[in-house]
Structures are given as C-alpha cells and as structure tokens.
Amino acid sequence: MEKIKITRLEIILISLITLLCLGLRLYKIDQYMTFLGDEGRDVRVVRNLLSGNLVFIGPQTSIGNMYLGPLYYYLIAPALALSGGNPVGPAVEVAFLGTLTVFLTWWFGRTWFGRSIGLIAALLFSLSPVAIIYSRSSWNPNPMPLFALLSIWGIWQVYRHQKFGYLSLVGIFMAFALQMHYLGLLLLPVLGIYWLLTLKSTWSSKIERLSLIRNSLFGILVFLILMSPLALFDLKHDFMNLKAFQTFFSDRQTTINLNPGRSDRFLPVLSQITTDMVLSRQAQYALVVGVTLILLTLFFLIKTKKKAPLILLLAWATFGFLGLSVYKQHVYAHYYGFIYPAIYFLVAFIIVRLWQTSLLSAKFVSLASLAILIYLSLAFSPLKEIPNNQLTRTREITSLIIKESGGKPFNFGLIAKQNYDESYRYFFELDGAKMFRGEEAITDQLFVVCEDATCQPEGSPTYQVAIFGPSKTQKQWQVGGINIYRLTHTIIK
Fold first, then answer.
1. What stretches of 188-276 show up as alpha helix (H) in DSSP?
2. Distance between CA 69 and CA 91 in Å, rounded?
3. What's the pLDDT tens digit per position in 247-284?
4. Has residue 329 been placed in a domain?
5. What is the pTM of this model?
6. Residue 69: left if φ>0, alpha if ψ -120 to 50, beta else—which one?
7. Number of domains the chain is built from
8. Do 115 and 158 touch, CB atoms closer than 8 A?
9. Are residues 428 and 313 in the same domain?
10. Residue 2, domain member (yes or no)
11. Which of 384, 400, 422 represents a domain boundary (last residue)?
12. What kind and span of H or E run contains 373?
C-alpha cells in the first residue's frame, strides 16, 4: 500500500489519543491495580531473579497444570528494580506497553487502511474498559495484545513486501506471545498460512526462495532459543510440561472439542467478545451487534478493492474466534487478548466504510455508532469504580502484623476463597520479618488474615492454620474491612 503522508492534524490527534490512553491507565494505578496471590508470586520470583537466581519457567496455567516460559519475569524485572521493589513499578510498565499497543494500532491501521481507520481504532482501543483493566496491573497475559500485533505485522511485511529479515522478529514476538499465554498458539495458523503464501510467490525465483528459507530457519532458531528455558526445565523434570500438554489435548471431555463443526459455543463466545470489547461490558443486544459486525465485514470485503489487509485481519480474528469456540471451559476476557487489536481494526473499518458510502442513512449510522461506542466506554469506564486498594491494604496488614509480632518469629495463615498468601509473603520478606511457614517451623504465635466475609480461624482446616495446632485467639484487628487475628497455642491438660 502506498505511503500516506502524516498531517499536522493527525499528529495532534494521535498525540492526544496516546496521552489519553496513558492517562487512563496510570490514573491512581497504585489504588486500582490488582495485587493478589498471582501478582505477589510474580514479584517474589522477580526479586529472586534480581538477586542472581535465574528463572527457567514462568507462571503455571490455571487449566492443564502447564507452565509458561519465563520471559514475562525478565520483561518486568527492570521495572521492579527501578521502583525499588515496589510492585507498582511493573504495573506502570504494563501501562506503558498497553499504550504502545494503542499507538502501534494507529500506525499499522493507517498503513493498512488509511488515517481515519487508524485513528478510530486507536481511540476505541484507548477507551476500552476491558483494555484499561488489563493494562494497569502486572500480570503475564496483559502484554499479549502487543506481541500478537507485532507478530501479525511482521508476517505482513514478509508476505506483502518480501522483507524476509522480519522473520527473525516474528520468531521473537511469537515466543513472547506464547510465554504471555498459551492461547498465542492461535496465531500460528495465520503465520503459517502467510508464510506458505510467501513461499508460493517466491517459488519461481531461486534467490528469493533461498532467502526466505534461510531467514525462516534463523527465525525458528531465535524462537527456539527463547523457548529453550522451558525445554531445559522439561528435561530436568521428566517432561512434566510436555505431558501436561498431551493430557490437555487428549482429555477432550473437559478441555477442547477438536471438531469445530460439533461445537455449540460459537454464539456464546461471539456474544461475550462483543460484550467485552465492543459494548464496554454491556451484554444487551451483544449477539445482534456481533452478527451485524460479521455481516458488514463480509459485505465490505466484497466491495473493497484492496482486500489483502482486510483478509489478513479476518484470518487473524477468525482463527482466534474458532479456537476460543472449541474451548469447553469459561472464556475470560484476557484469553482473547491476542485478538484485541484485530477487533478494533474491524470495528473502525466498518465505521469508516459506512461513512464513505453515498447513502445519507449509512453516514448517520456511522456517526451514531461511533458516538454510542465512545459514550459506552466513558459511561462504563472502570475509573468510575471504587479503587480496590489491594496493594495498600496488603502493605498495611503486613506492617501491622510485623509490629504486633514484637520482633519475634511467627507463623502466617490466610483464609480466602479467591486468593492465596504470596502477596503477603512478598512484603514480609521485603521487610525481613521473621515469618515462617508451618512446614518450616512452628512458632509461639500465628497471625491469620481472613479475607472472607465470615470465617473462624480457630480450628480452620486451612493448611497453614491447621498445621499450627490447637490454638485460641489472643487479639483481633481490622484493616480495610479485613479481620486479622493473633493466635497462640492452646495448652492441652
């Protein structure tokens, strides 16, 4: 596609969108960011990494008991170091990566389709409540949209412009995408198809064909090098990860249905994606809107002369949608992070193409649709919600426990249905507290944090409480609506 000159107005608009995007993600980030067990685990691992302990595996997946690669830990390590161990540092880095994703959405969108589509896609992406939520906390799936977008852009450069050197970058970006979340695997069909199309187009030229193959091998090598820590981990642990993969794909009763034709989840997944990404988490009319978007995309595909970029986006979105539709478990919003940019490209494409038609009614629908989507994003912005203050509350609780422990060793237990104790352990270790897990040592006092609305620490079956033995409550506090108990051993006569 021919180059489009950047006008002064466009520079002003994308600058405003980028600043808006960053502001929405950084606004009170220390109060809104998620800081629970997963986030505590990550910063504990990264702190050890900064101390010189290399990491060969990443977080464990919630389904399938598989381990991701460690690239996310290496990615956020500089931010944790620069912030002096404050977990806000990695969250701020993720906010900047999310903003970079929006900026690149504009740049790639204008290259593929023109200024208007690039700007509208970036604007909708920047305002998206779901995108904001997943761009203001440090969590491994959150940078997925960036690496997915870069992978697709890289293979486009290979296919469309014969820039075979981009294959090395595709290998790098794909390794990062996979190590953010294994649903990045759904990018492989698109990359594979466009590589084969490139091979077909270069087959008549021996020089180009050999250059493609040579760069492809180098890209695969780079990819394998970045994935090698996982391979080394598997070699050392009896191929535990590989076996987990085999179980995941073989036990299809509860995981996936490899026959898309027999799946009954197409409409529910379409409705959910439309709800989350287009309608700002408002489920009303989601299925109607989703189906309408598909029909309009196909209609304009027929009418559009320059189809290649649109076909690429459709392949990207379609393989992602089909992959999510054969998955039998609940599909969460962060699962389809790898198609976030594609969704906003397609929505922006439809809005602009409607405006460009000669029908006055279509122009009205175009403007009304854009206005409604912007209104929904603003009306249901997550910034209107009360901050969770998870980081501050966790810090206050650990500080209180350290003070009340009197400088003596103590055990710690957490009673919570939706959390585990890694976030608390991070601050205990950061402050050098004499906290021991029950399997390490039994002390004379046990501090129990109850995050559930009702709980009874005495006699609780929670492991870190039960292992302490018979006990009774000596004192109780409350921080941010959460109860903290100090228990001591009960003397059995």
1. 188-202, 206-236, 240-250, 266-273
2. 20
3. 777 765 556 666 655 567 899 999 999 999 999 999 99
4. yes
5. 0.94
6. beta
7. 2
8. no
9. no
10. no
11. 384
12. helix 360-379
